[in-house]
Design a protein that fits this description.
The structure is a single chain. The strands form 2 sheets. This protein has an 8-stranded mixed β-sheet with strand order 3-4-2-1-5-6-7-8, with helices on both faces. A 6-stranded parallel β-sheet has the order 11-10-9-12-13-14, sandwiched between helices. It has 16 helices and 14 strands. It starts with 7 loop residues before the first strand and ends with a helix. By secondary structure, it is of the alpha/beta class.
């Protein structure tokens, strides 16, 4: 690959470290750090929110006081959130929406998704970036960034990675069309996302570039003591001879977490060796639903470190996230790295990932009976589980790791 002249690159994203990152944030972090290794001048522009709630609620939401930081040679700039703009748009849409014209209401929905970054215009005018990447949809930062970039004297190349979950209606908002039309390049993370974007928003397919997400395998635990760490973990939580189902992600209903919780509880009532381990941010609905199940069939973690998470992935029998709110699913790759079979929802982007790799099984979202049968099938059929886990690992090594995709990302940004 020929040497590329050093560029000033900005990644604009709604939340960043030390906040807990979702898949889109992890993707941005890894890509930004790789570009910084190549001596590009890389910045992250984000909100000063430690929790998503701070985008709308400065009283109960949590913020990050530090305005500037450098992590792995990437500069981090945190701008304040204007909660008033987000909140007034939410109130207008939720309580007066029936009085508003449809197009105006759709615009408000983008605004209230938040965050609105105070000072972004002056910041971009001052820094004069060569390339700006913004992600994900349907966050207002995309709308805000586009409007600012249109009026900059030095026009940056503008790239967007929407992370569209078309199982969720908010991503079909027709007011997102002008954002997609106005940027220089659109990055889709699956073929199905590209097809849906072009079909729903009537875009030229040549404008959409498909490159999958990836894991950075060099940072994953391949050390010899992993087996010993798994043994210690199982002993600590009394997991020997337990059938371990793992979920990792936001514990919301759309992610399928509530269904997994009740399904494993039903299995536990028939066979007390079943247990569910969950990792991820909690919410009031999750805490309410936990009250209805036996504590002996659940180990519930909030945030844990990456090495700890790898130990749990290594300890589980299967990974289960039947999410309808998914555009890819990095956690499936994490499970495959430990050669574990996965269960996902039978929706197009997940079907493309898991089905093409033959690395797991799919269930209809919300169908608890089918979910229970599928979990039992994988637990009971060890040969099938082993085969699916190995297939997933092969797909990870060949298609979904950083080395297999980095040059494609350089072409996306620099060609």
């Amino acid at each position: 690959m020929e040497k590329i002249k050093n560029k000033k690159i900005a990644f604009i994203t709604p939340i960043y470290l030390p906040a807990n990152l979702f898949g889109s944030g992890i993707f941005i972090k890894e890509l930004a750090e790789e570009f910084a290794k190549k001596k590009h001048n890389v910045s992250i522009i984000t909100s000063n929110a430690l929790t998503i709630r701070f985008w709308h609620d400065p009283i109960f939401g949590k913020s990050i006081k530090q305005k500037y930081d450098v992590i792995n040679n990437v500069k981090i700039f945190r701008l304040p959130c204007n909660q008033f703009i987000s909140d007034i748009c939410f109130v207008l849409t939720q309580y007066l929406g029936f009085l508003l014209p449809t197009r105006f209401k759709n615009k408000l929905k983008i605004f209230y998704s938040g965050p609105f970054l105070v000072g972004l215009k002056k910041f971009l005018q001052k820094k004069q970036f060569d390339i700006i990447h913004c992600s994900p949809f349907p966050m207002n930062i995309n709308n805000q960034t586009l409007k600012i970039c249109k009026n900059l004297k030095k026009k940056p190349k503008l790239i967007i990675t929407p992370f569209c979950h078309f199982g969720v209606n908010g991503y079909k908002n027709p007011e997102l069309k002008h954002l997609l039309e106005s940027v220089d390049r659109i990055h889709s993370i699956s073929n199905i996302e590209k097809n849906d974007i072009c079909k729903i928003f009537h875009l030229d397919s040549k404008k959409v570039h498909t490159i999958p997400l990836f894991l950075k395998l060099t940072e994953l635990n391949e050390q010899e003591n992993l087996i010993e760490n798994i043994r210690v973990f199982k002993k600590k939580y009394k997991l020997n001879n337990r059938k371990i189902i793992l979920f990792a992600g936001n514990k919301g209903k759309m992610k399928g977490t509530i269904d997994v919780l009740h399904t494993v509880h039903q299995l536990y009532q028939k066979d007390p060796s079943y247990i569910l381990i969950t990792i991820g941010n909690t919410n009031p609905e999750w805490e309410r639903q936990k009250k209805y199940i036996d504590n002996n069939c659940l180990i519930d973690f909030d945030y844990i470190s990456c090495p700890e998470k790898e130990i749990i992935f290594g300890a589980c029998d299967l990974f289960c996230m039947p999410s309808i709110s998914e555009s890819f699913g990095l956690v499936y790759l994490e499970a495959w790295h430990k050669k574990k079979p996965v269960i996902g929802a039978d929706i197009p982007p997940v079907k493309e990932l898991i089905g093409n790799a033959n690395g797991g099984l799919l269930v209809k979202f919300g169908d608890i009976n089918q979910l229970q049968q599928t979990i039992e099938k994988l637990i009971q059929d060890k040969n099938l589980s082993e085969e699916l886990g190995k297939n997933g690992y092969k797909a990870l090594i060949s298609r979904y790791n950083l080395d297999a995709n980095l040059n494609k990302y350089f072409d996306l940004f620099f060609s």
